[in-house]
Structures are given as C-alpha cells and as structure tokens.
Amino acid sequence: MTSFAPSSANSPAHAAQHPKLAPLTNIDVERIRNDFPVLHQTVNGHPLVYLDSGATSQNPISVMEAEQEYYEQRNAAVHRGAHTLAVEATEGFEAARDKVAAFVGAGTDEIVWTSNATEAINLLAYSFSNAYLGLGGPAARRFSLGTGDEIVVTEMEHHANLIPWQQLAQRTGATLRFIPVLDDGSLDLLAAADIVGQHTKLLAFTHGSNVTGTINPVAELVALARKVGALVVLDACQTVPHLPVNVKALDVDFAVFSGHKMLGPTGIGALYGRAELLADMPPFLTGGSMITTVDMHTAEFLAPPQRFEAGTQRISQAIALAAAVDYLSETGMDRVAAWEAQLGQRLVAGVAEISGVRLLGPGLGVERLGLAAVDVAGVHAHDVGQFLDDAGIAVRVGHHCAQPLHRRLGVTASTRASTYLYNTTDEVDLFLATLAEVAPFFGVKP
Fold first, then answer.
1. Is there a domain that residue 4 lies in?
2. To bridge 257 with a disulfide, which of 182, 238, 240, 384 should be the other Cys (CB 3.0-4.6 Å)?
3. Are strands 150-154 and 231-235 parallel, antiparallel or unpaired?
4. What angle separates helix 315-331 from helix 333-352, to the nearest 10 degrees?
5. Which domain holds residue 168?
6. Is residue 446 very low, low, confident or very high in pLDDT (cuts 50, 70, 90)?
7. Within a domain: 342
8. Which keywords appear in this protein's UniProt record, sorted alphabetically (predicted)?
9. Residue 271 belongs to what H/E stretch?
10. What is the tally of structural domains in the chain?
C-alpha cells in the first residue's frame, strides 16, 4: 500500500544540512522559509512578516501536498468499505494516528481525532455530563460530578478551557473554582495548594499561556491533583507545536492540541486520554462508525478511540497533520524550542527598551514561549495592529480568547507577536522597531 509520509523531496529543505541536529541559525531558518510559499509575498508594499503563529501557523509544501495527494489518489470513506481505495484511505488515516500519537508519547488507541482542541475539551465535558446522567454504566461513575464536587481551572485559561467547564458545572451542580494569576503573569501556586482540595474532581489548566507566554509547572500542578485523586486535563495547544511534549512523562490524564497551530491544516485536532479512562467514558456524539450492534431500542459502542469518532471523519486533515509531524520531527523539536526561546527573549529585551510599552507576562531571563503580548499606553491594541499591518507585519490584537486574564492584568486588549520556526531575528527586530514608532505616530507621549 502507498505510504502517506512525505517524500524526501518534500521534507524540510534544511534537514540534510544538519544530520546531527545542530542548533538552528538564521541561515537554517531562511532555508526553512523556502518550504512555506505564503511567506514569500508583500503586504501593503512590504515583505510579509508573519508573527501570528500563536493563532494559526503556516503550512509547508509537504503538508499541502499530502492532503492533495489523498484527494487525487485515494479519496474514500474510512472503516466503511472493502474496496481498494477504502482500504488505502483507512490505512493512511490510521497511520496518521500512529504518527501523531508517537509525536506526543501516547499510545495509538489513546488519540481521538477531533476538529480542534475546543471540540476535544467539549467532548470531555459532555462525556462527563453523560456520566452524570447515568450513561456509561458503573464504569463511568468516576467521571460524574455533582453538588459538592469542584472543578478547578486557572485565571489564565483560553476560553476553550474555561467555558466548557463553566457549562459542565451549571449542568451538574458542581462548583467551578480558579487558581489566580500573579502580577507577573504566573500562577499563584501557594493559592493553588489551598484551592485544589478534597472536593476537587477535575483540574484543567494550560501548559503555556497564549497571552503571557508563561510555561506552567505541570509536575507541581499534577502532584496537587494526584494528592486528592482529581483528574487532570492539559491544554497543550501552545506547547505541542513549540516544545518537546510527552504526555506520559507529564503524567496528565487528558491533553488536547490543534493541527492548525503546528503546521497542519484547519479542521483537525486531537484528544489524548489514558487508555483506561477512555475505555470507561460514555460517548459524546453518536451515530455511524462508533457502534457494534444496533436495534430499534439499544446500541452498543466500539472501544476507543472509534467510540468518540462518530460520522465521516477528517481523513485528509489527519493525513496532512501527520505530514506536519514529519516536518517538525525532521527539524527536531529541541531545535524548534531553542530557537523560539531565543526569539522570545529577544522580544522581551526589545520591548523593555521601548518607553510606554508594557509587556504582559514574565520579564527577561524567565522561561517563556516565543511570544510577547504588549500594551501601548494611550493607543488601542487594534490601532497598534493596524499600524503594524500597514508595515506588512501580521500580529494578533484583542483579548486572544482570554478575557479574564486581560482583566486581571488591567487591560482590555493587547497586541501579540508570536514566533515559530520560520521566523528570523531580523523579523523580530523589525517588529520592535515598528512598535517603537506607534506612540509617536498617534501623538502619544511616553
């Protein structure tokens, strides 16, 4: 059968240059950029500087070709046919699961395909709701929450890791509590030790903040949950694309991430769940492809992960995500992380030199993701973003789906520059130089 891995011609252009995975340099990054056609254009008369990968990353040629090849050569429904195309499509689809699972240190049966991380968290929340309603039988009772139980999140969560738990608390009568954020954008771990207690049934938190760049101490938080027997849900959207992540080593029960943030296409994400937990969870969506036996009154369900994958699946997207994983693996996640750490510190140092611009999150020398969200005194974030866009620099503006965190930090919105493996130090410097021109342009004195 046909292999769905990208050919050597479509692998990272720089890979052969660094067989021992030496640290990335600007020269390496320029080679990497050759694999990303979208980066080679002008915006408003300026070369595009794409600093919005925290929202959506760009796709290398190999990822686009993997999806195109599927549609050209073996487009068919998976798990539903015995003809050759259906068999090849199914093999490619499941090979993609194998590859993505290995990338995060999970077992193949521990990866459930979803449309994105938001759907993955909602899958959990609604499955737990079904357990509360008595679905899933005695084995599912471990997921049932009710009056007197507590769900703990943090004040820095993306709305995707907050609202589903708010809704679950409302449906079940459980109480939602949160770990507060300190002025530097880090979690108050002393408060966390008091908040995570005997009534805590679930602790959900982000691995890395999409606003402050804070990388949370997973081991400390997991230890708090283990002490009281609570389940742990990790939002790894901002770390799986940028850091080496092994979900087994992190000892979390569930983790979620999205393809479009890690060089893959939109419309594909994944839920990791420990096999023994997925085996006990009742399904969220029901219908075709997730059943064994059906009569007019009852149905029996497949084992995970298919139990949670009702209906026609995201076949081409999964195959393309596997190609993205190939690209990142061949580049080396240690190299990606080191390069972005360098860019992140360069952003922090540069922002510190601009009068009237406040950095949200940890300062120079503190480990952080390769992003920086800032507040320009006297200038709305949308105006800052427009000024940068006029210079060809793409950034994110707004509350980044984290209104409570912005409120805690005393701002309504911020301007965020987020880097990836295809960004150069020159691009970071251009962003900083242009950012320094914002206040004078709008007549604001520092």
1. no
2. 240
3. unpaired
4. 80
5. 84-327
6. confident
7. no
8. Pyridoxal phosphate, Transferase
9. strand 269-273
10. 1
